[in-house]
Amino acid sequence: MFDVHRVEREIGGKLLSIETGKIARQADGAVTVQCGETVILAAATSSKAREDIDYFPLSVDYREKLSAAGKFPGGFMKREGRPSQKEILTARTVDRPIRPLFPDEYNDEVQIMISVLSADQENDPDILAMIGASAALSISKIPFMGPLGACRLSIVEGNHVINPTHEERERSTFNLILGGRSDAINMIEVDAKQTPDDTVADAIEEAHKSVKATCELIEELVAKVNPEKIVVEPLNTEDIEAELKDKVWNDFREAYQIVSKGDRSAKLKEIQDAVKEEYLKPEDGSEPKYEAKAFTKALGNVEKNVVRELLLEGKRPDGRGYDDVRPIECEVGLLPRAHGSALFTRGETQALVSVTLGTTRDVQTVDGLLEEYGQSFMLHYNFPPYSVGECRPIRGPGRREIGHGVLAEKALEQVRPSEKDFPYTIKIVSDITESNGSSSQASICGGCLAMLDAGVPLAKPVAGISIGMISDGGRYELLTDILGDEDHFGDMDFKIAGTDEGITAIQLDIKAEGLPFDQMRAAIKKARTARMKILDSMSKAIEKPHELSEYAPRIVKINIDPDSIGKIIGPGGKTIRNIQEETNSTINIEEDGEVTISSVGGDGHMLAKEIIEAMTTPPVVGKIYKNSKVVSVKDFGVFVEICPGVEGLCHISELAEGFVKNVEDICKEGDVIPVKLLLIDDQGRFKLSRKAALADMEKSEE
């Protein structure tokens, strides 16, 4: 019944296997990929596209079924619904490297669906998903110019580890996802703890050896399956291009040397509308000379060739040289109620960034194949249509916005202080208010400035830059700080973020069939030069963290004996509620005895800390309890609660200096007074003194 083909190879010390022929046989190509006890299913299908379509409708969907890890989804609904952020990011990771590897003329609809069938919670299924998508396409009829291999590399204790476990990744200082063909790189994702440029480049080259081995494994499977591929006939537009070149070439050249994006776009639209009107809508009502699809492609090719020629001549749209960074303006503290804010403007790209500081109650709960955890650092990236002068429906963040936000988040998280030193949940929101290329890198720069404005003690300031590339045969030119048009018509978008010490994040997308190692190293070097210029501009706006905003919570942490937790909470939570109401603070207690206390405005958090310490620490003779409460008044003195549940007697003779005739002349029930613990008698009774407390406090003030 089954015509099963299987290949396997040890890569990075782990057995990787790919199998086809048993599951999803009606798909054009389907494989299961296994490493350890993690198994994914990848299926690729295609169908005829609409006649008038002029783009490649590729869609990638990746889903993690929690049953793969023996888990139920949290919450009321027990069926998985919309994709999680991890699923969206993995789908993008699969999509980005394979998208350039299809013929330009191929416009059939292609859908790749990847499901995690088994998860051992050690081997991440995202690398298997990339390999599976490539293998499914390679054994199908779909004209895929692969195979594409993938691997993850971490640096753990100074050593390269291929396809590390989750535990190894937690201990690493550098994490890389690499996608590529046997002879070149197609995609890079990096998060690193200020890793030197050369170390990054060496790691990429080392990882590519495993990518090559994966490609060879897929090729072995293809040889066994021997698929019959669709042959795509190229759409011949040479005659149309020659005619259009004579008509609009010079007009395009002039338009693409207009510095302002708005003026340039208006002029280009005018040229395009005029030539389309002439060729596709003849005035005499006759049939158009050329088919609309062929004409549109030819016009696009002419425009693309104009831009590429200008760039190779050294003529960038805004007049800069290859190595120039656009003018930069930085401003901090412009939003009065935000805990931190910044406006970062680079040319016609602008990010308005705000930072909010929260407590442990504000962490984002993440539930997936791994154990549930709380995310205490997050960056949300928003790209409203007005940023590019457009109108479109607003339907929540798309995949691009989520991907750009996580890239900026990774770049900045590497320099955040430890939660022990700065126990805050940090949320950064970047609103792109203008865009003409590299908006994700503007979010990194603006996010760094806003965190410093919020008083976050960063290890180092971080800046990001995009490096583009234009090539023609053996010649190539690298473009620093690329514009939108340079990204659209160029060959590469190499986003690199870091400090003056090293790299914290990388994302590479390439439209060419691959990036050679020498060009990769040259781009990293050029990015460092530009990054130093940007960091210098940022330091002029803010060099050191500001004081915490008066609107930000103040947080203090203490550790208590877990056996004392019940005492703090009290019956039905009565005690902890009373402490919170009395001190206007918020208290969170973990099972291990860690207590987080926060308050906004005033020093309620410190007052609550004193109360909890007093409750959980045995009373100490000689200690002053400044906020003790009078709970009972007698003729001979007052009974005072020095902490919840702990009372002692302050005799009338210890209330004040001199003779006290009436106790209520000094204090009444409910008053808060300072007392000093003088002694604990044989019966465990506490002798207190207001008189001694006031005297000691007066001396300490002097």
Key descriptive features of the protein:
702 residues, alpha+beta, Ribosomal Protein S5, domain 2, 4 domains, 15 helices, 30% strand, 3'-5'-RNA exonuclease activity, Polyribonucleotide nucleotidyltransferase
How does this structure look, described?
With 702 residues, this protein is of the alpha+beta class. It has 4 domains: 5-225, Ribosomal Protein S5, domain 2 (2-Layer Sandwich); 238-312, Arc Repressor Mutant, subunit A (Orthogonal Bundle); 328-541, GHMP Kinase, N-terminal domain (Ribosomal Protein S5, domain 2), CATH 3.30.230; 619-702, Nucleic acid-binding proteins (OB fold (Dihydrolipoamide Acetyltransferase, E2P)). 32% of the residues lie in helices and 30% in strands. The protein has 15 helices and 29 strands. The strands form 6 sheets. An 8-stranded antiparallel β-sheet has the order 8-7-9-10-21-20-18-19, with helices on both faces. A 6-stranded mixed β-sheet has the order 1-2-3-4-6-5. Strands 11-12-13-17-16 form a 5-stranded mixed β-sheet. A hairpin with a 2-residue loop joins strand 3 (29-35) and strand 4. Helix 2 packs across helix 4 and helix 5 packs antiparallel against helix 6 (261-280). The chain starts with a strand and ends with a helix. The mean pLDDT is 91. Belongs to the polyribonucleotide nucleotidyltransferase family. Its EC number is 2.7.7.8. Mg(2+) binds at residues 487, 493. GO terms for molecular function: 3'-5'-RNA exonuclease activity; magnesium ion binding; polyribonucleotide nucleotidyltransferase activity; RNA binding. This is Polyribonucleotide nucleotidyltransferase.
